[in-house]
């Protein structure tokens, strides 16, 4: 049985005046330790799908199973890393990274020590007593990653976590997040508009078509790219042809280009 099983997802938003179908016939599986990206034009339902997988939104139709159990029973096993770091500005970095453990009643000396050790591992040792405003955007996103991993989630949801950063910081963080998730054997789903990011970080890229969102095509990344860092993948000889293939498929999804 697959680690994550998304089956026959269909979702419609209803208002008094209209019904808008955001997703239709979405079915796929994700294996444990796999990194997949959801890529597609605006309005294809990427974030809606992420919300359904994480059980923040109940689909009109369909099921999502995590380790063969309804995902609604596994909320504590899902972690999030978003575009904004959402650190509490009045709390220290240490207080921020321990917040998830505190809320889930998992805060003890062992977990606290592990969280602080991870902060050190990703190059932020010594900032525990500082406030978020004293850190750069990239450093704050690293803090957000530690806070997410501290609760030891089985599945990570990454909703455009690098899009607000400058390009150099973004590339560095792609490598850091990829390496950290590999080391911990984590399963992750990334929502992104960035073709390069999807290619460089993923094992598979799911390209969604818009109105309503459907899986248009799945791109399996070659082993040569999976084995190297995202930065190295962007410079690999296979990268340009994969980029062109996905670009062409995205172009074909534009209105009037059937």
Automatic annotation (TrEMBL):
Domain of life according to the entry: Bacteria
Alphabetized UniProt keyword annotations: ATP-binding, Nucleotide-binding, Transport
InterPro entries: AAA+_ATPase (IPR003593), ABC_transporter-like_ATP-bd (IPR003439), ABC_transporter-like_CS (IPR017871), ABC_transporter_ATP-bind (IPR050166), P-loop_NTPase (IPR027417)
Domain spans labelled ABC transporter: 4-235
GO molecular-function terms, A-Z: ATP binding; ATP hydrolysis activity
PANTHER family reported in the protein's UniProt record: ABC TRANSPORTER ATP-BINDING PROTEIN, TAURINE IMPORT ATP-BINDING PROTEIN-RELATED
Protein name as it appears in the record: ABC transporter-like protein
Organism listed in the record: Neobacillus bataviensis LMG 21833
Lineage of producing organism: Bacteria, Bacillati, Bacillota, Bacilli, Bacillales
